[in-house]
Each structure stands twice: as structure tokens, then as C-alpha cells.
Fold this sequence. Notes:
Elements lengths: L2 E10 L2 E11 L4 E5 L6 H8 L7 E6 L2 E2 L10 E4 L11 H11 L4 H8 L3 H4 L15 H13 L5 E5 L7 H18 L2 E5 L3 H7 L2 E6 L2 E7 L4 H9 L2
Parallel strand pairs: 3-8, 3-9, 6-7, 7-8
Antiparallel strand pairs: 1-2, 1-4, 4-5, 9-10
Helix pairs in contact: 2-3, 2-5
Amino acid sequence: MIVEIKNLKKVYAGRTVVDIADLHFNAGETIGLVGNNGAGKTTLFRMLLDLIRPDGGEILSKSLNVASTDQWKAYTASYLDEGFLIDYLTPEEYFIFIGSLHNMSIAHVTDYLKQYQEFFNGEILNSGKYVRDFSKGNQNKIGIAAALMQNPELLVLDEPFANLDPTTQIRLKALVKKLKVTHSVTTLISSHDLNHVTDVCDRIILMEKGKIIKDIHTTENTLQELEAYFSE
Ligand SMILES: Nc1ncnc2c1ncn2[C@@H]1O[C@H](COP(=O)(O)OP(=O)(O)OP(=O)(O)O)[C@@H](O)[C@H]1O
């Protein structure tokens, strides 16, 4: 088990938006988090990354509370939104900066980026543009590739398929599947795309109004089950 959530609560303006009694993520799992707008997915991710603090309960990463320890930062990478980027840098400058945090030389970063040539689809590098001038989908690509520079054990992605073109969505799925096989990465993905999450995730957690409604291992029936749930 890599993450353990106990009696977690987040309250905004008197309304409980996350309320999870007990939830575990096992090492090496690819977990999809689904739920309608406002279900609490992003709030849960933000608490897992200690970007906001819970009003009750705790999140343990490798048995240590993420709100009171730093160890989890060494093996956890994430891309939630463009707030993770640095607008006034070019993608190259941003990658070099992130690389420097992981003791990577410029040459090492340049070499590292070669594997993302296909994922970038020729749109990210050598464009002369700043991060702020890229489309949301291309900013997503920059953020995800930068997060992976850390060689994480735990990867957290908030709606990574949103704004990506179909080709890149397929490439991202292949990338996540490969990380699981080659590096046993535990990946958490929130998404509104039931097709993609059931395709790439081996476990799906369905949230509604802050609570876990379903927690299922993906089978060939899962997509149908989720579609039936959401069409009610
Ligand atoms: N900073 C905040 N202040 C007040 N309410 C907030 C804040 N952040 C989130 N909320 C509320 O908490 C609830 C859960 O929001 P959250 O963004 O976690 O949902 P989500 O499942 O990620 O939704 P979406 O699919 O729309 O991204 C929503 O009702 C939202 O309005």
C-alpha cells in the first residue's frame, strides 16, 4: 500500500466536499477517479499533495502524513493544472529548470526529452514561444513530461485527457501503461472520459458529493456499468 486515507474531511462554507472514511491505493495500481463536476476529485488530489489541508482525518503516503512530513515529495510527481508551470519561460527553459531540481544537466535534459518527441508531436520544442502562449492541451503535455522527469513512484494527474487531441490522448494512455509495466508507477488519474479511464486504469473509484460511491476493479463490464450509473 502506498497511500492510505483515513476519515478525511474537507469543508467549504459549511458544506462537506470530501468525506472519505477509508481508502487505500496499492503500489503499482493505475487508479481512475471519476465523478460529476464538484464531486471532490481535485480537492482530494490537492490534499494528497498538501496544497490544501484537510479539516479532519489524514492522508498517509508510505505511512507518513503528507501534511506533516516531506518524504513523499521525493517520489511523488503531479500535474493538476497550468498553475504548476512557469509562464515566462520557454518549454526548454522550464524543462531545464525542473531538471536542475533533480540534478540533471542541460545535456541530460535534452537527451531525456527525446523520448517525448512523439508525445509532443512537434509542437512543444524549438517553437520560440513562452509557456503562457501555448494552448491548454500543449501546456498539459509540458506539465506531464516535466512531472515525469522526477522518475516518480506516485504520479497524480488531474483530467490529463481534457484538451488533448485524440492522437495525444492515445499516446498518453500508452505512456501511463508503459510506466506501470517498466517502473511499477502508481498513477492516479481523474477524468470525465469514461472510455479512457476504463481503458488505462485497473481500478476505478467513483465519487459523488465527496463520498466514494463505487470502488471497482476494471473488467470488460466496467465501462457499461459506469455509463449506466451516469445516465440515471
Ligand atoms: N477554494 C474553494 N472554496 C470554496 N469551495 C470550493 C473550493 N474548492 C472547491 N470547492 C468546492 O468543492 C466542491 C468539490 O470541488 P472539486 O473541484 O474538488 O470537484 P471535482 O470533482 O474536481 O470537479 P470537476 O470535475 O468539476 O473538476 C465543489 O462544490 C467546489 O465548488
